From TrEMBL:
GO molecular function: DNA binding
Any one biological process term the GO annotation gives: regulation of DNA-templated transcription
Protein name: HTH crp-type domain-containing protein
Name of a matching Pfam family: HTH_Crp_2
Location of the HTH crp-type domain: 104-153
Superkingdom assignment: Bacteria
Gene3D superfamilies, A to Z: Winged helix-like DNA-binding domain superfamily/Winged helix DNA-binding domain (1.10.10.10)
Amino acid sequence: MAQIVRLTTRQQRSGQEEAAQAAEQLSLLSEELLKHLPGEARLALSKITHALQKAARPDTTEGLWPGGFTMLSRMQTAAIWDAIRALPSDDRPNQVRHAFDLVLLNLRQDTGEVLLTRDQLAEEIDCAPRSVSTIMGTLEKMGVIRRERRKIEGVRGPGMAVYFINPHVAWNGSLDVRKAQAAETRPPMQLELLQGGAS
């Protein structure tokens, strides 16, 4: 049986090689030098290196893990599942769990942004768009996600709701960026309770 091979042009190969070389040069920066850089500069370097590595190996997400993968904290995820199961029926635990699973499957690399809109979430969960706000609000109260408003040019109002995963729960992308985000974010409420009980 013939094997299908993705062809790359000479220009694409050249770009990949240049990206790989640039990423390698950045990796040669000493820990001593990086230690003296401001946090924003270290974060920017990490993002640049990650982008270059991705450009150098554009097909890696189609390999062992088609579509890429998300890193999960087992303890936080288990605590969230338990907390969702414990929700009263009025809070729609099945739909909240479905929303949580969709969040984990649709994260943007290096920001933790959920890549589904409210309407897309509603379609996947099979509920009204207005119900998504309540469902995601439940996850927000639990500390699993946070919500931001993104202004749309020419449209009045507070803007479109954009959701981000708590980096203590899951992450997709550079670990350096995840550490920086986690340092500025509180763990989910359930994990704080678990940690408090363990001490």
